[in-house]
Specification:
6-stranded parallel sheet, 6-stranded mixed sheet, 16% strand, alpha/beta
Length: 695
């Protein structure tokens, strides 16, 4: 039998160490499972103290089990060989041996920071940085970087081409993965930025903004778990497609307690997945829409009575429209419509009593008068009609019919026509912030159904009590806010969407990720102003990521020319990888388009190992879906749904149609082109956009 090569010996050595770590992981899992069993047993003690102990033990042990299970795949991913001969292993969570000695350092711990920050120019005491590539608990590959050759012993083995470039060449699948093993120095600086204030991460496509932001969320939970776990971390992305794409990242880093929501799911109990038309979306998102909604919320609703009269003893008691308006103003100066219902009734009784002048009525007194009104059907019917409990969704539906009344000085007649024509019966993604604004303006209704709350189904009793106390104190679960809010693709948010998020982050720290050149909001400067208003006076830490790790240089150099049509002076990154394959552009006759799209999609599937996207304007999505091959690796998407995603190959259909769809068409086209990591093909019936790019 031949002797193993140095590479094979290194692999065997690392596998032996990884086996030891997994053995300790298994022992920790058994301990956590036993604590769950013990905790459940304490529930049989028969008194409240036993129930509290049960809940606490089961809750904490279950959380530990979740973290251990989530970190199982690829638990150990790094090793540092330090000056002096010591080795330090880095992993998704920390692990200790039976003597409580650390055998695996959590990647978020200060001791692991040098794994990401050391460079050949500044090795920081690191001789060799090693990345272990694993499948489950098996080490299948090693990639080394020799950072300090002068300090390396003569027998030190260095394997591979470098972990980063090796990872860049691998095929994508349908989910985003942690890059915890290959984080670069500028990315690590953003991840470990100060916890307080707002961390704004900018940079062009493919620079790793999203995955850096998610790693930052995991890092914050590790460094100050009490604050961020009790207050909660909200991660907001552009679409449900995107949220499905990233949902595996945080659990793989040992975090399972973060709330992930698309921008259409931020408001509890309401979910939207469909966009309004670009023209309508631009109007719904304007900051002045908040003024319209305020007027709608504070004024009498459609069908509300404008006069009330009542016979009492010797008097006819009348409240005219001016009297009712004065009472309304007084009530709303001290509260919101849904929180002043009891006060409204009292004010009406008081105003009517002031009109009692007859002796028979005055002799009975005010208390008897109020008691009689309490059972008077006419009065109760009037109160319910004049000051009803208002549902935000129903009030939202009434807005189009009231535009002439509340918006004539804010929206032009043409804009009002668009709003009336396209106002949907069911909310679109762009309507959700309007409904949230109305919730805020109307106040919470006195009672709410249990299924309106977006909370975990299995809450411990102490969590339920704590939550109920907080809701009772504030009147709204949304007003509680989060300890940290992470916003991805932030450049797309409208002013109204920023208002919605700002309400959930009043006392939070923030991580904000975006690139102005990719904005789908027509006026990026207006969006930036709304963001600044949401952040208030908190300190801001800015980071720019400069290297494009996603796209081949051939694809990105072409896309960069498109970016110059999107905005002036776009933030362009440097692509570090070449494939030797240029983007290809096919122009065909209209009758040949669909057949050519089907052929190009099939060819792309044959050329790449990973995922393929066929992207078409929203109006052509159905016909394109009908002709492309059925394959688990292929997705058909409209342009906005590609935000934040990446594919090995992209077939873009009708680029001129993408440009024409909205005022932000060139920026959207830039987004679509930069989703491709390996190959890009465009198919269309004209070359107007290509001629513009060539100018």
């Amino acid at each position: 039998m031949s002797n193993p090569s140095p590479d094979e010996r290194e692999l065997e050595h690392e596998q032996a160490y990884v086996d030891t770590v997994y053995q300790r992981l298994e022992e920790s899992t058994k301990v956590a499972q036993s604590l769950v069993v013990e905790g459940l047993a304490r529930g049989h003690i028969g008194h409240e103290g036993g129930l509290v102990e049960r809940d606490a033990m089961v809750y904490q042990a279950s959380r530990r089990l979740s973290a251990l299970h989530a970190a199982h795949d690829g638990l150990v991913f790094g090793r540092l060989d330090l000056n002096g001969g010591d080795a330090r292993y880095i992993g998704r969570i920390g692990v200790r041996d039976e003597d409580r000695e650390i055998i695996l350092v959590d990647w978020r711990a200060p001791a692991a920071a040098v794994f990401y920050q050391a460079t050949a120019q500044d090795p920081a005491g690191v001789v060799r940085r090693r990345v272990l590539r694993c499948r489950g608990d098996r080490v299948v590959g090693i990639e080394d970087e020799l950072l300090d050759a002068e300090a390396a012993p003569d027998d030190m083995v260095v394997i591979g081409e470098g972990a980063l470039l090796a990872s860049l060449s691998r095929a994508r699948d349908s989910s985003m993965h942690s890059v915890v093993a290959t984080i670069q120095k500028e990315q690590d600086e953003a991840i470990r930025a100060p916890a307080r204030g707002a961390t704004i991460i900018g940079g062009g496509p493919g620079t790793g903004k999203t995955v850096v932001a998610l790693h930052r969320a995991a890092y914050l939970l590790y460094t100050d778990r009490r604050r961020f776990e009790s207050g909660g971390v909200l991660v907001v992305g552009p679409s449900g497609v995107f949220m499905n794409y990233i949902e595996r990242v945080l659990p793989s880093l040992g975090e399972t307690s973060v709330v992930l929501r698309s921008i259409g799911e931020v408001v509890d109990g309401i979910r939207a997945t469909r966009h309004a038309s670009p023209e309508m979306a631009a109007l719904l998102g304007l900051a002045r829409m908040a003024q319209v909604l305020s007027r709608v919320a504070r004024s009498p609703q459609a069908g509300a009575p404008h006069r009330f009269d009542l016979f009492y003893r010797d008097d006819r008691l009348v409240l005219e429209a001016s009297d009712l308006a004065r009472i309304r103003r007084r009530l709303l100066s001290n509260g919101l419509p849904n929180t002043t219902q009891a006060a409204a009734r009292e004010e009406l009784v008081k105003a009517l009593w002031e009109r009692v002048t007859g002796d028979r009525g005055l002799d009975r007194g005010e208390e008897a008068f109020a008691d009689q009104l309490d059972g008077d059907l006419t009065f109760e019917t009037f109160v319910d009609a004049w000051w009803p409990e208002l549902d935000p969704v129903e009030v939202w539906r009434s807005v189009p019919s009231r535009l002439g009344e509340v918006a004539s000085d804010l929206f032009t007649s043409f804009e009002q026509q668009v709003l009336r024509r396209e106002w949907a019966d069911q909310p679109t993604i762009e309507d959700i912030p309007l409904i949230d604004e109305l919730r805020h303006l109307l106040g919470e209704a006195p009672e709410r159904a249990e299924d309106d709350w977006a909370t975990p189904k299995q809450m411990m009793s102490f969590e339920e009590r704590e939550r109920e106390d907080r809701v009772q104190a504030t009147g709204s679960i949304d007003d509680l806010g989060y300890a940290h809010v992470l916003v991805d693709e932030a450049q797309d948010l409208s002013p109204m969407q920023w208002r919605m998020l700002g309400r959930r982050g009043r006392t939070a720290s923030w991580t904000i990720v975006g690139d102005e050149a990719q904005s789908s909001w027509p006026v990026p400067a207006e969006s930036a102003a709304a963001r600044d208003e949401a952040l208030g006076t908190m300190p801001v830490h800015r980071f720019r990521l400069s290297t494009n790790y996603r796209n081949s240089a051939e694809i990105y150099e072409f896309a960069a020319r498109v970016a110059t049509h999107a905005i002036e002076r776009p933030d362009l990154a440097e692509a570090v990888r070449r494939t030797g394959v240029d983007p290809r552009h096919e122009v065909v006759a209209a009758g040949e388009l669909l057949a050519r799209v089907a052929a190009e999609a099939a060819e792309m599937l044959a050329q790449v190992e990973g995922t393929v996207a066929v992207v078409a304007p929203a109006g052509r999505l159905a016909e394109v879906t009908a002709v492309v091959p059925a394959d688990d690796r292929l997705r058909v998407l409209e342009p906005l749904d590609t935000k934040g995603l990446e594919f090995d190959g992209v077939v873009l259909v009708d680029a001129d149609g993408v440009v024409a769809e909205a005022a932000s068409g060139w920026r959207t086209l830039y987004v679509v082109l930069t989703r491709a990591t390996q190959r890009l093909v465009t198919v269309g019936t004209s070359r107007r956009w290509l001629d513009r790019v060539a100018e």
